[in-house]
Structure formats: structure tokens, C-alpha cells
């Protein structure tokens, strides 16, 4: 820094309050045009129908084998989630694997695992500060659009950490 530069750091409390992060928000339906106008930077896409498959595994090798089997029959994996453990502690853990499309009964029988259909959803991607995210979610529920899930995609970034004058 040269002698004439002045640097102002943002107070640590302001960083969290003003921090922006990228969010994926799953909605049960497409947002109305009025909401799209309020948030013109949002990207909107339909996820399509999916099928959720649950599989208990006793180690990473079994999970890898299960995922390889699903890919081997041509299924497109969209999500893999570790489910919370059951109250009775066992050595196995359960994963939920979502695949693209609504699978037919013959294929589901051959996979031999619990499953359920996941209806089409709308995925919104937007960058928000915490207060703006709350406002957007409230606007969604006010116009009758159900919220299926919210996931922060990246770490918060302060709006302005360092200001040089």
C-alpha cells in the first residue's frame, strides 16, 4: 500500500449480515410471472420427473457397486444423499440415489430396493444476502408456490470486504 491509500475493512458482524451466496431453490411449481419480474436475475429450469432409490450399504465399496449397477443399465444419476441413521445403530448406512425419469415396474423389481417417484420440480438459482433470501421464500409461499428445498451452492461472499479510496 502506498502512503496515500486508505483501506477500510468491513466490520466482521457486517460481513455475515451482508454476505451473499448462490442458492438453488426447489419449488413445487413454476414461479408466477410477477415473481420473475421482481427477481430478473433468477435462472429457472424444470427438473423433470425422477425416481428415488434407497440402498443400505456397509461401506464405500458397496455404494460404488450400486452406483455402477445403476449406470450400467443406462440410468442417469441426478443426486446422491446420505440419509440420517436409524435409531438402532447398525454398521450399515442408507443412501438415497435419485435418477432421471419415472422408472417402470420391471426395472424397479430388478433393482430390488425401496423407491418412490419424485415429481417434476422447478429449480431456481439466485444470489442472495440472508434477508433477501427470506423475502424471496416468503414471496413464493405468498403466491402459493410450495418450497421443496433450499441449498446454498457456494460460500457467502461479502458485498465489499475492502474498499480502497
TrEMBL record:
Domain of life: Bacteria
Protein name: Uncharacterized protein
Record organism: Nocardioides bizhenqiangii
Amino acid at each position: 500500500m502506498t502512503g496515500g491509500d486508505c483501506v477500510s475493512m468491513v466490520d466482521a458482524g457486517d460481513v455475515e449480515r451482508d454476505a451473499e451466496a448462490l442458492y438453488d431453490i426447489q419449488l413445487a411449481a413454476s414461479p408466477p410471472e410477477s415473481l420473475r419480474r421482481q427477481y430478473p436475475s433468477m435462472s429457472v429450469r424444470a427438473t423433470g420427473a425422477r425416481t428415488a432409490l434407497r440402498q443400505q450399504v456397509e461401506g464405500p465399496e458397496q455404494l460404488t457397486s450400486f452406483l455402477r449397477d445403476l449406470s450400467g443399465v443406462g440410468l442417469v444419476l441426478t443426486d446422491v444423499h446420505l440419509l440420517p441413521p436409524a435409531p438402532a445403530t447398525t454398521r450399515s448406512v442408507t443412501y438415497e440415489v435419485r435418477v432421471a425419469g419415472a422408472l417402470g415396474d420391471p426395472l424397479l423389481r430388478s433393482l430390488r430396493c425401496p423407491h418412490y417417484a419424485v415429481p417434476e420440480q422447478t429449480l431456481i438459482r439466485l444470489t442472495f444476502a440472508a434477508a433477501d433470501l427470506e423475502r424471496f421464500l416468503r414471496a413464493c409461499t405468498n403466491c402459493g408456490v410450495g418450497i421443496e428445498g433450499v441449498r446454498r451452492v457456494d460460500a457467502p461472499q461479502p458485498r465489499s470486504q475492502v474498499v480502497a479510496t
